[in-house]
Amino acid sequence: MSKLTQNLTTVLFSASLGLVVPPAFANNLYTAVNMMSCELLLIDLEKDILIKHPLVGLPGMPKAVCQHTWVTPNEKTIYVSTNTNETYGASIVTLKVDGINFDAGRADIRLTHVLEVDKPGTKSNFPVVTQTSGTQPIPPWWFPTASQIHAPTMLPGTKFSFTTGWTDNRIRSFKTSASGQTTVVSTRSFGSKSAQKHGVNFNLSGTFGIVAGYHLDQGTIEVFVPNKTTGAVNWKRSISLGTKEVYAAFAHYTTWIDNRYAVVGTMQLGPTSLTPENGSVIGPSVWLIDVKNDRRHG
Predict the structure, then answer these.
(1) Which of 37, 101, 114, 186 has a CB 3.0–4.6 Å from the CB of 173, allowing a cystine?
(2) Count of CB atoms situated within 10 Å of the CB of 113
(3) What is the pTM of this model?
């Protein structure tokens, strides 16, 4: 396995666990979450120690499925996103880290704020797709019925966090005050350009963010430009993974090599009801994206 493929495999596997790889300027703390039990996982990279910290008993913690988690570069604040259900809305839970003793297996963590970004019972807005080929099965569990927020990232050089509404087309950014209160500073929608996306991944300079389409027959990578003052993003361009008729699609995550080049892996195997009549799908593949010159190589 090549180094590039190995790195991409690690990124895809990590994303499926709700694990967030911290930016290069972070220290040694990784965080993850067991989705159904809402158990926070704290990992010391240097000591190779794992602490499991239940969140269900924390006062104010929503009784909902946990989705993703991410940690600030100073490792003092941890965020956890939750899904919508009939009782609780999709939320961003802000946790303050007062101390972690990995050798003793203890963590002192308190909940400072729950930011509800969707009301209880908010439904998803997911495109209908049906199976047309035996090469591309479509499992029934693929269609979420309630709103979900996914794929958190942070904009380098700022205090802004970002999430995408995988079940709709909203890109949100957040900021937390010194007192631990988290607020939405921007909610942007760009129609199909931001629908069913899985995270805005920024390069280390924070000049570009790229977004993968986490759904069948989404064969483009969308490029966004962030505003480091307001926390908003603006759509810049689309980069096709192939052509309109012959393309690779269904990506989960993107990762940057440097400030110009990024890689993305696609997972779609064959055509679906969303594939154009004369179209065809390039199978699972890894693509090199050149954001500066709008080029891509599979």
Answers:
(1) 186
(2) 19
(3) 0.86
Report the alpha-carbon distance of residue 146 to residue 33 in Å, rounded: 20
**Domain 3-297: CATH class, spelled out:** mainly beta
Per residue in 177-188, pLDDT (tens digit) is 988 899 999 999
Backbone phi, psi, residue 12, to 5°: -65, -40
CA 286, 155, 94, 107 torsion-angle sign: positive
- Kindly state the tokens that stand for 154: 């942070």
User: Of 283, 196, 276, whose CA–CA distance to 248 is shortest?
Assistant: 283
25: left (phi over 0), alpha (psi -120 to 50) or beta: alpha
- Residue 96's nearest CA partner among 117, 82, 75 is 75
Q: Do residues 232 and 188 lie in contact, with contact meaning Cβ atoms separated by under 8 Å?
A: yes
The four Cα atoms 139, 145, 147, 153 give a dihedral, to 10 degrees, of -10
Could you tell me which of 180, 172, 175 has the C-alpha nearest to residue 197? Answer: 172
Please report, for the chain, how many H helices and E strands are present, in that order. Answer: 1, 21
Structure confidence by residue, pLDDT tens digits, 134-180: 999 998 888 999 999 999 999 999 999 999 999 999 999 999 998 88
DSSP 3-state of 211: strand
Task: Give the whole-angstrom CA distance, residue 149 versus residue 171.
Answer: 9
Sheet holding 295-297, edge to edge: 251-256, 261-266, 285-290, 295-297
Residue 205 CA, chain-centre distance (Å), reads 19
DSSP helix/strand/coil, 52: strand
Those residues with Cβ within 8 angstroms of residue 279's Cβ, 6 or more apart along the chain or in another chain: 244, 245, 246, 247, 271
